[in-house]
Amino acid sequence: MKRSIRRGALAIGVVAVAFLGTACGEDGGSGAGADPAPATTTTTESEMDTATADPAADLVGPGCAAYAEANPDGAGSVSGMAQDPVAVAAGNNPLLTTLVQAVSGQLNPKVDLVDTLNGDEFTVFAPVDDAFAKIDAATIEKLKSDADLLTTILTYHVVPGQTAPDAIAGDHTTVQGGTVSVTGSGDHLKVNDANVICGGVTTANATVYLIDSVLMPPA
């Protein structure tokens, strides 16, 4: 009698195990029939670095390498200038001290274009200090007192919107209203008669082309 009871209990246990196994297979649990967990996407540090634009990637001009070597880091470096609006970036560039004086009211107190230059997107043809040194002393003295003339010259170097080196060739209407003509390609660009020393330098709101002569608008 006891042996029969044990056999009955064993049979019930086997049935119960089988039932539980079937239920687990049907309820979408962790069995083979369960839907796979959604895949997650992880962005690696190298992928993030690749996605970050290199400010030096599109530079053109024979003087870019020398400038980068002389200014490898800091606010005046190519990467440093990319962080600031154009008037601030120019102030950190050791080649543009005279231009900065001209646009900030230091040359002529009545001419301060800093807020204008920082307030929108521009392409700026920026004469280096040696370019201003080519201008005769009498003209420089005149610019110190003739605000209209200085403003006309400075705004002739500024074009609305940003234009990269691969699209810069051609005629461009300046903020002054006149037209500048960019010719050549690659490391051999000219703006009117001025040579581009290093172009495609990006700032927070502008693309800058360092040039070796001051552009004079047509009379």
UniProtKB/TrEMBL annotation:
One of the GO biological process terms: cell adhesion
Biased composition (Low complexity): 33-49
Keyword line: Signal
Region (Disordered): 27-49
Ranges of residues in domain FAS1: 83-215
GO cellular component, one term: extracellular matrix
InterPro entries (UniProt xref): Adhesion/Biosynth-related, FAS1_dom_sf, FAS1_domain
Endpoints of the signal sequence: 1-25
Gene Ontology molecular-function annotations: cell adhesion molecule binding
UniProt protein name: Fasciclin
Classification of source organism: Bacteria, Bacillati, Actinomycetota, Actinomycetes, Pseudonocardiales
